Amino acid sequence: MAQTDRLILKDQNALYEDIAGTHKKRAIEGIAPEAADLEALDRDGYVIVKGLLDPDRLARVAEATRALLGPTGRNNFEGFKTQRAYALLAKTRELDILAGHPQILGFLKARLHDEPLLSAFLAINICPGEAQQIPHHDDGFYKAPRPGPMLGLSVIWALDPFTVETGATRVWPGSHLWDNDRMPTDDDPSIQAVMEAGDAIVFNGGLWHAGGANHTEDRYRLAVTSQYCAPWLRTQENMSLAVPPETVAQMADPLPSLLGYQIHPPFMGHVNGMHPRRLFDDAG
Ligand SMILES: O=C(O)CCC(=O)C(=O)O
What we know:
Elements: H1 35-44, E1 46-49, H2 55-68, E2 82-85, H3 96-99, H4 102-112, E3 117-126, E4 152-158, E5 170-171, E6 191-192, E7 200-204, E8 209-210, E9 221-229, H5 239-242, H6 245-248, H7 255-258, H8 278-283
Bound molecules: 2-oxoglutaric acid (AKG).
The site of 2-oxoglutaric acid (AKG) has 7 residues, from loops.
């Protein structure tokens, strides 16, 4: 074999460098979280962040979300007395602020990845009489050893007050550190994420949790959940098909990146050998 035909690998990292020409990697930027919030996220697997939406914004977001709600769920995971709406970014621009909120980007950058993908983005309206949801963790479909590196980070935005009676999300503190064989039992302490409308719970995708039971006869518990994953994992919602490219082209950064209009270096996510943002360039 001639010298020039030999594969000489000097530095493994060189294999994974950003080799894109026109569109270089766009790492997300955000507001750095408080140290205490990151400590809580690491230790308990969750943190409640208060007052992320001001009253005007909250009112607009809640109104836009309610307008999209459809029929109640088809199984006991979706909830037979819970309305859900998916593919939200295909349907309204009023919710962009939730998917790309600077404080959430800060958590993503600090703990998940600087090129996260939006894995799921849906509305959840728990209606009167709903039972507690099946406990689960959002990264459960990635068959990886637990505990392990963070694969996903989830946010549940309270658009109504989250109370014990209306079905505030139940979480099992510290359960992101449990091993693969462990599931919550009645002996495991849990709490409900009681929140004001406009607050959000930010949690490790490995944290066991469940939508709470709604014990009321006439109160609803409206939420939007934004769930993110590392850029080398498959997203729950097939965002490339759910949100048309012409809709993504109207969005401000970082939303196109969160929806997969990015390359995870060196070339994960290319389209016909090109950076996906070239779709916009060529259209323009
Ligand atoms: O609505 C909630 O409080 C939790 C819902 C949830 O975890 C889910 O559907 O994945």
